[in-house]
Each structure stands twice: as C-alpha cells, then as structure tokens.
Amino acid sequence: MRPAAFLDRDGVINIDHGYLYRWEDFEFVPGAVDALRRLQAAGYALVIVTNQSGIARGYYDEAALQTLHDALRAHLAAQGVTLDAIEHCPHLPEGLVARYAIDCDCRKPAPGMILRSAQALGIDLGRSLMFGDKPSDIEAGQRAGVGRSVLLAKNANLAAAKGGQPAFASLADAVDALLHD
Ligand SMILES: [Mg+2]
Ligand SMILES: [Zn+2]
Fold first, then answer.
1. For residue 154, what pLDDT is reported?
2. I need a surface site. Which of 18, 38, 64, 92 has the fewest CB within 10 A?
3. What are the protein's UniProt keywords (predicted)?
C-alpha cells in the first residue's frame, strides 16, 4: 500500500476566491504545481478532498464542477502531474438544493472523503499526509487517521502558536520541509 497526499483545493492548490466554478477564474497558488510534482515523485498518490457547498447552495451544479476538474486534470497532466482522485462534498445541511441539504459523512471536518478514497485506492493512511488551510481540514485528517496533517496559513508562525500545529505559509514551503526531513 502506498501513502497519499490528501489536499484541500481552495487555498491550497488555487487561490480561494470563494465558490469558484469556472476554469477561467482558477488561479494556482505560486509553487503549488511544482509541489504536487514533487509529492508524486516521492511516491505519494495525489488526492484532492474539497468541500463544495456551492452546489448545495445552488451557486453551481455537479456538471460545472466536473468541467472545472476536467480542465484542472488536463492542465496538470500536461505538466506531468497525475491526480489519482478528486473527491468533493456537495452537501450542506442548510443548503437550498433539497437533495444536497443533508448532514453527510463527507463534509470536512468529517473524514468521509479521505476514508472513501483511501479504500478505493489502497492507501496506507498512517504514512499519508493531509494539507489544508482551515482547522476543519486538519480535523478531517486526524479523524481519518492520516499520519500527519499540515496547516497552511498566511501567517504560519501565528497559526503554529495558536493551534500548536506545525504550520507553513504554502504547500510549496510545507513540501520543502517535509520531503527533506
Ligand atoms: Mg481551503
Ligand atoms: Zn458531503
């Protein structure tokens, strides 16, 4: 079994503009593509786990998200990066679209997306990593049994002091540090 790098999307891979659903608006965080390539080269499966409550809120639909993710996959593939899976949670209990307005097991901090993809891909969770920019990402990683969950925060030192979690300013900084441990 191989380890995975589980990655939140918004704020980790792309700049979080809020309820993004068009490829034209997708803007990579500097250094993120190279960091993904390095994780892949180090033997990690690459799995995006992203809360997309914009679907439950009615801002965009599953088809629009699929189109965006197809474009993302194609863009990364052209740069030598293969995503092993993209898991999204479309739910929100107070959402406007009835079929998504449920209390699910996949909206982070719940661990459902991580557990499902780990099962499907044969992932060793204990040797895996989770990268996120919110405490709910870290909690999801911990609840899933991921070996190391890393908080990315603009003010990394402040985040570390507050939460007691190791924190880095970006995915690129975190990968620099972790792959050289
Ligand atoms: Mg995020
Ligand atoms: Zn869900």
1. 77
2. 18
3. Carbohydrate metabolism, Cytoplasm, Hydrolase, Metal-binding
Is 143:164 a contact under the CB 8 Å cutoff?
no
Q: Which residues surround ligand 1, an ion (CB under 5 A)?
A: 8, 10-11, 133
Return the percentage of the chain with pLDDT > 90, whole number. Answer: 91
Domain membership flag for residue 57: yes
Number of domains in the chain: 1
Q: Is the pTM of the predicted complex or chain greater than 0.70?
A: yes
**With 80 as the cut, is the pLDDT of residue 147 above it?**
yes
Please report, for the domain that includes residue 87, its CATH number: 3.40.50.1000
Contact between 45 and 6 under an 8 Å Cβ cutoff? The reply is no
Answer whether 28's CB lies under 8 Å from 149's CB. no
Answer yes or no: is 163 within a domain.
Answer: no
Mean pLDDT of the chain: 94
Distance 100 CA to ligand 2 centre (A): 8
